Amino acid sequence: MRAVFVVLLLAEAAFGQTRLFEREVQSPDGRITLLVSVADSIRLAVRYAGQPLMQPSPMAMTLGNGQVLGLTAKVQRSHVRTVRDSILAPVATKRRVVHDHYVELSLEFNGNYTLEFRAYNDGVAYRFRTTLPDSITVRDETARFVFANNPTVYYPAVQPRTDADRFHTSFEEPYQIRPLNEISDTTLCFSPVLVTSASGPRVVLTESDLLDYPGMFLARAGISLKGVFAPYPLAERMTTGGEFPQAVVTRRADFIARTTGRRTFPWRVLVIGQDRDLPASDLVYRLATPSRLTDVSWIRPGKCTDEWITNINLFNVPFRAGINTATYKYYVDFAKRFGFDRILLDAGWSDYQDLFKITPGLDMPELVAYARSQGVRLSMWTLAATLDRQLEPALNQFQAWGVDFIMTDFMDRDDQKMVNFYTRVADACAKAKIMIMFHGAYKPAGFERTYPHAITREGVLGSEYNIWSRKATPDHDVLLPFIRMVSGPMDYEPGLLNNATKEQFRPIAGQVMSQGTRCHQLAMFVVYDSPIPIFSGNPSQAMLEPRFMDFLGSLPTTYDETRILDAQLGEYIVTARQTGNGWTLGGLTNWSARDLVLPLGFLANGPYEVIGCLDGPNADRNPVDYQFMQQTIARTDSLRLHLAPGGGFLVRIRRK
């Protein structure tokens, strides 16, 4: 049900030599206040619990005809409304029913544009709306965020490439942590970033509803962060070095977007809260355009396997492992044995530049028939440039093979042209009833609400980095739920079964290990949002541990509700997910061991059975060590859990 209350307001007051318009609105719970002032410019300030959080910060949009939306602005009309709504999520990533409750201020200006501001209990957002005739060119957008008290910023910085400009990135970097005034003004960050001070709440700065417009990078400007947008690409070339060719921009325009004059623009979003609030927030999802799909019955979340990280280094098999029919039949058998819904054929099943040129030794008709006989679906990796060129015939071929989920990879940009590639591919996949996952991708920014079959996304430094670096540490892993995951689902690809301490770890291709314990890897399947989590471990090793794999294979991937039971930014997190009458709890810690006591008051009355997989007594020395526990509990009890350094746990609670 929807209840909307609308009040028409207009006020101007004398302010020096200018006329000042001010309007203040509060979040439904009264904790967050946004103050909009209009004089020579339009500025937004934010208070949290009565304390300044963001100082007056300007916003504007410069058009190709010289018009600047936001300067010398005059308010024509002002509207305030309170909305109480609910969204039934087609894919229940965090929760099935998403409550959408906010207070909105709309300011209509001379010049045919409106600024919309929303105050939620968990953040604020604003966006431009234009009603200009015909098409428009956007030369630039001013998005400035002036935070109080020189806060600390957690940010992923773009690393310069030698073969492309600074707007090319895979959006996969570790977080750097510095006071705002110590960040170089030449550093370009990609969002989301986290901003925090000693006395205030945490703030995740990001965007939502990114459609037909470039994504927002961030850079320091004095005591503020400012939005930076990739100019529109005018010329591109295909790379020739490296394993996977991709299109890089060689010449850019003097504008960032060319678009219709009647539209809404992306939301600039501040998700605000304490440590327990951020990982459970779905504010970015709520702000996005509602689903463009009328039929979502064919979207089927579930668990998937992948072989790329382990380089198909199987053992105890009577065939030569590789990209061949026998290997993928083995993966099908593995998926069926442990309750996985599909397997992914990663890079190499076809020529990278021709999806119809199958790798010799791989008999697709035979594999398709075998997978169908076992009730396991096939999923396919694609190179973005190739999929773009062969889109319709490739999707037709995938349909014939019974493929319901594909990955496309190596976009590594978020200028307007590339953003529109995502929409074009999503539209085509929807017609073919095929789910899509983007790798080499920018953050979701609510895209999964608009296109529910765009079910998960990379845009995160994940398991694959264990192949060649030391970057995927438990410290990094524990930051992700508070920052990157706030923007939407993320494909980390956990499940590595060779686990090491900080001192033991080595990046070894083909014998990939993870930093931290086995249970740390297991817990990611619950702590991280992803309706199709991908198991990246070696199936041959997994076959030797059937109880562990049965436990992993039994996990749900969508949930009726999500709660954060305990959390501290960068230290640890405990997530509880509800499915029917049962709950699944997962916890991660950084390199510090810790003991947790978890009250169970969120349960209903009655006895419950608990089955858990915990760090073993020797996990601090041999992180592969784990143990199972089983007991009966009630809501008046507490769980006492020990997490080894780099450790974790996973517990399933079912009503008896």
UniProtKB/TrEMBL annotation:
<dbReference type="GO" id="GO:0030246">
    <property type="term" value="F:carbohydrate binding"/>
</dbReference>
<dbReference type="Pfam" id="PF14508">
    <property type="entry name" value="GH97_N"/>
</dbReference>
<dbReference type="InterPro" id="IPR029483">
    <property type="entry name" value="GH97_C"/>
</dbReference>
<feature type="domain" description="Glycosyl-hydrolase 97 catalytic">
    <location>
        <begin position="310"/>
        <end position="460"/>
    </location>
</feature>
<comment type="subunit">
    <text>Monomer.</text>
</comment>
<dbReference type="InterPro" id="IPR017853">
    <property type="entry name" value="GH"/>
</dbReference>
<protein>
    <submittedName>
        <fullName>Glycoside hydrolase family 97 protein</fullName>
    </submittedName>
</protein>
<keyword id="KW-0106">Calcium</keyword>
<dbReference type="InterPro" id="IPR029486">
    <property type="entry name" value="GH97_N"/>
</dbReference>
<keyword id="KW-0326">Glycosidase</keyword>
<dbReference type="GO" id="GO:0016798">
    <property type="term" value="F:hydrolase activity, acting on glycosyl bonds"/>
</dbReference>
<dbReference type="Pfam" id="PF14509">
    <property type="entry name" value="GH97_C"/>
</dbReference>
<dbReference type="InterPro" id="IPR052720">
    <property type="entry name" value="Glycosyl_hydrolase_97"/>
</dbReference>
<dbReference type="Pfam" id="PF10566">
    <property type="entry name" value="Glyco_hydro_97"/>
</dbReference>
<feature type="domain" description="Glycosyl-hydrolase 97 C-terminal oligomerisation">
    <location>
        <begin position="558"/>
        <end position="653"/>
    </location>
</feature>
<dbReference type="InterPro" id="IPR014718">
    <property type="entry name" value="GH-type_carb-bd"/>
</dbReference>
<dbReference type="InterPro" id="IPR019563">
    <property type="entry name" value="GH97_catalytic"/>
</dbReference>
<keyword id="KW-0378">Hydrolase</keyword>
<dbReference type="InterPro" id="IPR013780">
    <property type="entry name" value="Glyco_hydro_b"/>
</dbReference>
<feature type="domain" description="Glycosyl-hydrolase 97 N-terminal">
    <location>
        <begin position="25"/>
        <end position="290"/>
    </location>
</feature>
<dbReference type="InterPro" id="IPR013785">
    <property type="entry name" value="Aldolase_TIM"/>
</dbReference>
